[in-house]
Amino acid sequence: MMFMDDDDLPLAHHAARLVVEEGLEYAEAKRKAARQLTGGGRGRRAELPSDDVLEDAVREYLAIFAADTQPGELRALRELAQRWMQRVSEFRPHLGGAVWRGTATRLSSLRIDLYCDEPKMVEIAFLNQGWDFDSRGGEREGPFVLTLAAPCRALGESVTLHFIVHDADAVRGALQPDARGQSWRGDLPALNRLLAST
């Protein structure tokens, strides 16, 4: 596979470029790539690639264009996630997203899933720690999410952290693998092993 000029890129490759160069999440990158490649949504509709296909394209893009910088940036983000998972350990944190899957760059945000009986308990804990955060969701609006910016000394900038709060019982399915047998997220011991092995 070759990354060529934009007009020649398959949709997955175009979306991969958006993920890496603009820090977009997969769903947003696929929609934006489809709009760009089909003339803003007019005319034919592009079939969006699966997350597995896009992840493969992202890994290829990183290998070609960011092999010298991405591993260090990924490690810095994983170490930041480790520190924050230790701080919120009472809520059984699990790291997900690009930082867990190994495709993150300095533009990526951290996604940490938390599991507890009452979402407000997480919000109260954050308030008690004096952390400056925004919250959204809950009830019928989707998962309760707390978002904050945390300094990352290794990167020399702040990183956005999203804490997604789930019902305590949902932790049972948290480690279900994808179609290739890889986990979508990992708990703190799993992250510690990952850091020790790289």
Number of domains: 2
Shape: globular
Helix- and strand-based class? alpha+beta
Cα distance, first to last residue?
A: 27 Å
Compute the number of strand runs: 6
CATH architecture of the largest domain: 2-Layer Sandwich
In DSSP terms (H or I, runs of 4 or more residues), the helix count works out at: 7
Radius of gyration: 18 Å
> In CATH terms, what is the fold-level topology of the largest domain?
Beta Polymerase, domain 2
Largest sheet: 6 strands, mixed
Which strand order do you get reading across the main beta sheet? Answer: 3-4-5-2-1-6
Main CATH class of the largest domain: Alpha Beta
Helix content: 40-55%
The share of residues in extended strands comes to 15-25%
State the order of secondary-structure elements, H for helix, E for strand.
Answer: HHHHEHEHEEEEH
Mean pLDDT: 89
Uncertain ranges? 4-8
Protein name: Nucleotidyltransferase
Organism: Vitreoscilla filiformis
